[in-house]
Structure formats: structure tokens, C-alpha cells
Specification:
With 166 residues, this protein is an alpha+beta fold. It has a single domain, classed as Heat Shock Protein 90, CATH 3.30.565.10. It is 46% helix and 23% strand. It contains five helices and five strands, in the order H-H-H-E-H-E-E-H-E-E.
């Protein structure tokens, strides 16, 4: 009976952890930058990949509907790093300037043949397609740069709408 109770408690904790990763409550309270700091630490611990976050945000707060899309793009990009890249390290960079948010997720992994113009639209997997759709939903763009043995860089540019307070 104790073994079954332990399994049930571990399963419940796993479900809680995964639901928190999907829609972190911290984002509603503290904004995108702090949510990404939290996520990067969790991801690094779980995946065993050193991820560095550099955020240069003037305001640090975005409309919740925008922030969740950016969070999910980072989450999917790092998930791809863990599943496919065989990377030791990844970098997530957020920069706000000239009315745009630039997001970059770069790894030192295996890379892949991204094709002409690094657009790869015809060969996108579901994760890449989802990231592209999220960027376009925000009236932004997504570009992929990669080559075998050279790692991969995902770049997202999103125009900033009215910035809101937390």
C-alpha cells in the first residue's frame, strides 16, 4: 500500500510540474523575463544542458497573450535542442529595441540542413511549424539558421504592441 501511495504522489507531482511548465502561473505575476529565468533553470536541470538567458528588456512586461506565445516558442525551441541537437549548451536572448522584440535561441548541437534562405517552411516539423505560427500570430517572423555540425539558431522578431503593467 505504501508503494502505491508513493507512486500516486510522484505521479501527481509530475502532472503538477508539467502543467506548470505548460502555463506557468509565475508569468501572470512576474512577467516574461522572470518566467523565462525560471523555465531555463528548470529545463537545464531536467535536460542536463547548460542554458544561458540574457534579457535586455526595457520594460520587461508584455500583454499576457503575447508573453505566453513567446514563452511557448522558447519552450519548443529548447525542447528541440534536448530531443535532436545533442547540444552541451544553449543561449536564449531577448532584446527590445525600436519597437520590436528580438528573441534568439541558439545551440551548439548537431544542426541540420536548413535549406535555402533558412526558411525551411516546406520541411518544418510540427514543433517548428507551431513556433512559426505563434510568431506570425504576433505579426512577427521566425527564421531558422542551421547546418550539419554547426548548431541551430531560431530567430523571432515581433513588433511590440502597447506594453501593459503586471
Amino acid at each position: 500500500m505504501q508503494a502505491v501511495q508513493k507512486i500516486a504522489q510522484e505521479t501527481l507531482q509530475t502532472v503538477r510540474d508539467q502543467s506548470q511548465m505548460f502555463r506557468p502561473a509565475i508569468q501572470d505575476d512576474f512577467g516574461l523575463e522572470q518566467t523565462l529565468e525560471w523555465f531555463v533553470k528548470q529545463f537545464s536541470r531536467q535536460a542536463g544542458i547548460n542554458v544561458r538567458l540574457k534579457a535586455e528588456l526595457r520594460d520587461g512586461s508584455f500583454p499576457a497573450e503575447d508573453a505566453i506565445h513567446l514563452y511557448r516558442i522558447v519552450q519548443e525551441a529548447l525542447s528541440n535542442v534536448a530531443r535532436h541537437a545533442k547540444a552541451q549548451e544553449a543561449h536564449v536572448t531577448l532584446k527590445e529595441h525600436d519597437g520590436e522584440l528580438d528573441l534568439e535561441v541558439r545551440d551548439d548541437g548537431a544542426g541540420f540542413a536548413a535549406g535555402p534562405g533558412s526558411n525551411r517552411a516546406a520541411g518544418d516539423g510540427l514543433g517548428l511549424m507551431g513556433m512559426r505560427e505563434r510568431a506570425e500570430h504576433l505579426n512577427g517572423s521566425l527564421a531558422i539558421e542551421s547546418a550539419p555540425g554547426k548548431g541551430t539558431t531560431i530567430r523571432v522578431r515581433v513588433p511590440l504592441r502597447g506594453v501593459v503593467t503586471r
